[in-house]
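Reviewer 2 asked us to include a model.

Predict the structure of this chain.
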Amino acid sequence: EYTTWSTKELQNWLDAHNVPYPSNTPSQAELQSAVKAHWDSASQWTADQFSKAQVAFSSYKADAFDTWDESRLREFLLEQGVVNPSGTREQLVLLAKQKWRQYSATKSAGSFASSASAQASTAVYGDSWQQASKSVSSIAALATDNTAATLDDTKDYVYSTWDDNRIRAYLQEHGVVSPPATPRNKLLAKMKETYISATSPIYKAWSDSYLHQWLLSHGILKDNATKRREELLTLMDRYYYDAKTSVWDTWNDSQLKEWLIQHDVVKSDAQLQREKLHKLVSENYAHAHDSTWAAWKDSDMRQWLIDHGYLRSDAQKTREDLIRLMNDKYTDASARTAAYLTWPDARLRAYLREHGYSDTQLPTTRASLLQEVRTRWVQSSGGASSLWRRVRDIFDSGIEIAEDKLGQILEILTGSAEGAKEGAKAGAREANEKHNAQKVEL
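Predicted model (structure tokens):
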């Protein structure tokens, strides 16, 4: 399939797999030759890898990865056995798609399928009792930040501190019969099924300590000072998000229909159920002009068009004019499909808090939130890509890992020259001993 790839796609694949190629404008033939030489080794599967992939990929299509951010892609690739996945977001997307295609091809060929199916089911879901009684978190769920996978029944829920009699009474009130001799772990499993299904949003079922930990880990709280449950829930109302939730998941039926009408997807007299409305919005949202350009200020669009020669500096243009020009001239597909464009407002706010904003500094409109997130998103993406290129260039500059090279790398990673020198001395000795025996991988 790589024979139909563009030069950029070939380079992305080679970079994602740490395969060297000529740095001075390599030809299409040279790039294809390099990909061909490493294609088979990058495409081989073990039975264990196929078992994991069967669980992870069964819920996705290849184009799903286009909407993922870098951290989610890296987590997913790590689960698929990619050692320290690095590179730009485009390279990570390409690598995830390749893994998906490899899985699809292996599945179609029938390899590993019969044995892997049972192994994957048992590995992820447990035995028959566990499948029936426990809230399940699969490898795919772990890769997509499924919060419930990290909660402990014995301490992380509101009911975790209840005694057995209170738990039985609650279950009985909700029509769940538990024999008197039912052990506590099974009572808690039934509580998870019953209590959480009746609780919305889900975090209202969490214990105070877990609410506090979630807010602390997402940069909303800055210290361990105790807060009342009401205060914690108020913060959760403002900042909580599920990694699988998109902005339209928070809309009611009227909002879904209104968006579809405004974007000429359905007519105003259309009679559609919520499931159909939701599906139509999810299929069209990313392609709508205002979804992409809402993250750009007028001044940003104007400056980009001027810098690239598409607009005179003295030209007077309305926002609609600027959007029309940007949509026609701006060709960076990754920026136009950036994951944050579909995030709910709560996740946008949480992202900004994690990047240094205080609560009082947060914008109040979705457009303003998107514009601030975009600024930091571009800075983060550019920094990661630049860092990777600089580290790779240092390693590519010679065979021996000299003390000064490790010092340079540590300085890049820490932003400080002091301290890097001392760490480099010990690291250089150890690294040079190993270098001739195996390839150094970042």
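The two ends are 28 Å apart (CA to CA). Residues 366-396 form the longest helix (31 residues). We have added this to the supplementary material.
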